[in-house]
């Protein structure tokens, strides 16, 4: 009769376990797999023998498109950074940027923060973004303010996120925080200046 291996796993060193089905159950499994292959081939408009290579090609194309999208988004973010810095508030002798941004991921938000921190020269920036069903906040601070004003990105972003029911932290020059109350994004960002002023007075 028909014999079909369905799984293989390691039980111990040098010992493997093989699970299989036989008889009618094995026949039904093979029939189901063949039907799935036919459906996939029809969907991809490719011969059954070419399904694997077609899927791999699509995955490569998807990866290329994602990279192109990320590069385009970064170019857009760089343009925003210049505008944010040009319109930054002056606070106790340094620049303060507070902005709501559109980012595709936390990594992209951090990359935007890196660009901001480099270009702002001397300043603090707090960015807020809605990613999925939650808020993400990022704070970056230039080294001179960490040294001279004793400001810490982790302390600032933690308090900003708390306004929206969140928490977080990180290093003195860059920190991330998350929050669930998406409708409080603007309120949280608006609290940034007062939070920094309080830290300056306490420092």
Question: How is this structure best described in words?
Answer:
The chain has 203 residues and is an alpha+beta fold. The chain folds into two domains: 3-45, no CATH class; 78-202, Roll (Diaminopimelate Epimerase, Chain A, domain 1), CATH 3.10.310.40. Helix content is 52%, strand content 28%. The protein is built from seven helices and eight strands. The strands form two sheets. The protein has a six-stranded mixed sheet, sandwiched between helices. Strands 1-2 form a two-stranded antiparallel sheet. Helix 2 packs parallel to helix 3 and helix 5 (153-162) crosses helix 7. The model has no long low-confidence stretch (mean pLDDT 91).
